[in-house]
Design a protein that fits this description.
Layout: H1 23-36, H2 48-55, H3 59-71, E1 75-77, E2 83-85, H4 90-111, H5 117-136, H6 139-155, H7 160-167, H8 170-180, H9 187-201, H10 205-222
Antiparallel strand pairs: 1-2
Helix pairs in contact: 1-3, 2-3, 4-6, 4-7, 4-10, 5-6, 5-9, 6-8, 9-10
Length: about 230
């Protein structure tokens, strides 16, 4: 069987980095965005020297950033030590989304009793950003605002391990939605988030969980359409 060459990361359309809070974090953030948005498509070989040249930095922080993205599941280290953008595998995504759905639900169960005025304000802010991104047609902005919304509730659980376990996979979920679930980036999605906010505001935890379940089921169903 003939091997099909993988795309490569040479000559990326990215600007040199501005002065960041920390260089490694800035590199991680930019590479993550390139992967999630599909500029670095699934299967793309990551050549660290070429990436460093595109970003205007040395190879060392790029190597460290690629390692961090590997821990998030966005980069795959192959047997011969080549690194590539992790392909989207529907079975693996189904497994991931089913686990994440349970973690999100647990985060809601533990977090909802601690929702107060501060959290309600943060949820309202996330929904404002959700609507603004939707109005501008910025799908990734919508997805990130939605993730921020749920993170407010999960953060209220005051369980750092639960929060880490959900945050570490947000980029993988965002990439999957952009590639296979843009239909979920909609006014209907905004309405479900608003329903959850209203339920939390009146202390109706069952209704909030029902809204979360509705979104989780729809995401998981997308893995059966690939």
């Amino acid at each position: 069987m003939m091997d099909i060459p993988s795309p490569q990361s040479d000559d990326l359309p990215c600007a040199p980095l501005a002065t960041p809070p920390t260089r490694r974090h800035a590199i991680v953030a930019q590479l993550r965005d390139l992967i999630v948005s599909g500029v670095l498509a699934p299967g793309t070989l990551l050549r660290e020297v070429a990436l460093a040249r595109s970003l205007g930095v040395s190879a060392t922080p790029v190597r460290e950033a690629v390692g961090e993205l590997a821990s998030e599941g966005l980069v795959e280290v192959q047997a011969h030590r080549n690194k590539r953008v992790t392909p989207i595998d529907m079975k693996a995504m189904n497994d991931l989304l089913r686990v994440q759905a349970e973690l999100w639900r647990l985060g809601y169960i533990w977090g909802m009793p601690n929702i107060g005025p501060l959290q309600i304000a943060q949820l309202e802010d996330a929904l404002s950003r959700y609507q603004a991104a939707l109005d501008r047609g910025e799908a990734l902005g919508v997805i990130r605002a939605g993730h921020d919304f749920h993170t407010v509730v999960i953060s209220a659980s005051d369980n750092s391990e639960l929060l880490r376990s959900t945050l570490d996979r947000r980029a993988l979920v965002a990439r999957f939605i952009l590639a296979h679930g843009r239909s979920t980036v909609s006014r209907n999605g905004l309405a479900v988030h608003r329903m959850i906010l209203q339920a939390l505001g009146r202390g109706d935890h069952a209704a909030a969980l029902a809204g979360l379940e509705r979104m989780s089921v729809r995401l998981i169903a997308l893995t059966d359409q690939g």
